[in-house]
């Protein structure tokens, strides 16, 4: 019986060498290791042998079985590798085919403009301070010196989330946040971000837009510092020959309040459609921080003073790049966006 097992193993291994594909390999497994194979029947019948033969036959039969299983696995592995190599040979890739173009994104014009603004104010020592788009009525209006029912609230109609919570209409509430966080340090920050207004959408106005707010608080800050900062910004953003004009204005959170205009970049001050034949373009609202606002931020107006300003981001980009419709910024039309 032992002799027979040795022969059986030799025969099986020889047969395995002749196997050349996976179908033949399956056949080999059924024939030599399967339920009806000779080896299996020997294993099944070990119990019927005379007791002296049983251990040796049982051990050898199991060894043969294991050897055949290992040989089967090796063969299967080798066949798989061969098949893969053949497949690779037969379906060789053509590396001379042109590649598929990778589409590269770019920064949105608003982002590019914002970054340019950060760089200019950064060079003048202003940090960037971000504050939330969703604000409370108190921060958006109340603490900026516009108590409930103040008529100035009518300038900023917005989207309400609840009776007290709204989408901010301007970046000015960030002034209160930064003051409360920084007191008693002097402050020099710009506050960029999205603002929202319940507005008719036209070529000149959107219901969402970016603003950049500026705030400086210190011990001897004056209107001259404000005008110097704005003039410098205009020259760096639009070109060295730009001039600034200051008009008196009104904002509840500044006293005195001003508006700054710049000579029209398109007609050089002669008068054109863009500047509505005035020769001047509006740059921003600004002023000296109102004592009430300073106090709401935690700064004593008898010791501290400050200036603030706020302007839109799309408008300056429109002037700079001759874009005549603000809706293009939010239209997601790649033909427009790819130009910048
Ligand atoms: N918050 C104003 C607006 O949205 C802009 C503004 C005006 C901001 C004067 C200021 C300021 O900080 O001093 O129209």
Give me the secondary-structure topology.
Layout: H1 2-18, H2 22-33, H3 38-45, H4 54-90, H5 109-123, E1 127-128, E2 134-136, H6 137-140, E3 165-167, H7 173-182, E4 187-196, E5 208-218, H8 223-238, E6 244-249, E7 254-263, E8 280-289, H9 291-296, E9 305-312, H10 314-321, H11 334-337
Parallel strand pairs: 1-4
Antiparallel strand pairs: 2-3, 4-5, 5-9, 6-7, 7-8, 8-9
Helix pairs in contact: 1-4, 2-4
The chain binds 3,4-dihydroxyphenylalanine.
Neighbour order of strands in the largest sheet = 1-4-5-9-8-7-6
- What integer is the average pLDDT? 92
Euclidean distance between termini CA atoms: 88 Å
Q: Outline, from the CA principal axes?
A: elongated
Largest beta-sheet characterization: 7 strands, mixed
Q: What name does the CATH topology of the largest domain carry?
A: BirA Bifunctional Protein, domain 2
Domain unit count: 2
Strand content: 15-25%
Counting helices, strands and paired strands, the structural category is: alpha+beta
Number of helices: 11
Radius of gyration: 41 Å
Task: Sum up the structure in keywords.
340 residues, alpha+beta, BirA Bifunctional Protein, domain 2, 2 domains, seven-stranded mixed β-sheet, two-stranded antiparallel ribbon, 19% strand, binds 3,4-dihydroxyphenylalanine
């Amino acid at each position: 019986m032992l002799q027979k097992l040795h022969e059986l193993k030799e025969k099986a291994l020889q047969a395995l060498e002749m196997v050349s594909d996976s179908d033949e390999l399956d056949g080999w497994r059924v024939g030599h290791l399967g339920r009806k194979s000779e080896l299996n029947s020997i294993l099944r019948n070990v119990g019927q042998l005379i007791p002296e033969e049983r251990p040796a036959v049982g051990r050898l039969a199991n060894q043969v079985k294991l050897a055949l299983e290992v040989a089967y696995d090796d063969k299967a592995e080798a066949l798989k590798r061969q098949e893969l190599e053949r497949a690779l040979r037969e379906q060789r890739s053509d590396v001379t085919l042109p590649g598929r173009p990778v589409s590269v994104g770019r920064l949105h014009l608003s982002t590019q403009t914002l970054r340019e603004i950060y760089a200019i104010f950064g060079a003048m020592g202003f940090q960037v301070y971000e504050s939330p788009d969703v604000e409370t009525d108190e921060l958006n209006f109340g603490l900026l010196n516009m108590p409930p029912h103040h008529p100035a609230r009518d300038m900023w109609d917005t989207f309400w989330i609840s009776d007290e919570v709204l989408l901010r209409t301007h970046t000015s509430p960030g002034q209160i946040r930064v003051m409360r966080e920084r007191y008693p340090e002097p402050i020099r920050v710009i506050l960029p971000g999205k603002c929202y207004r319940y507005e008719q959408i036209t070529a000149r106005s959107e219901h969402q837009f970016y603003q950049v707010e500026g705030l400086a608080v210190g011990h001897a800050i004056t209107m001259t510092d404000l005008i110097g900062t704005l003039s410098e910004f205009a020259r760096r953003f639009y070109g060295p020959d730009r001039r600034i004009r200051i008009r008196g204005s009104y904002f509840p959170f500044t006293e005195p309040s001003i508006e700054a205009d710049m000579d029209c970049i398109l007609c050089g001050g002669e008068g054109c459609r863009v500047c509505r034949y005035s020769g001047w373009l509006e740059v921003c609202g600004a002023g000296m921080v109102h004592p009430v606002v300073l106090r709401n931020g935690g700064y004593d107006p008898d010791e501290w003073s400050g200036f603030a300003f706020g302007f839109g981001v799309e408008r300056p980009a429109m002037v700079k790049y001759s874009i005549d419709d603000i809706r293009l910024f939010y239209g997601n039309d790649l033909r427009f966006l790819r130009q910048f």
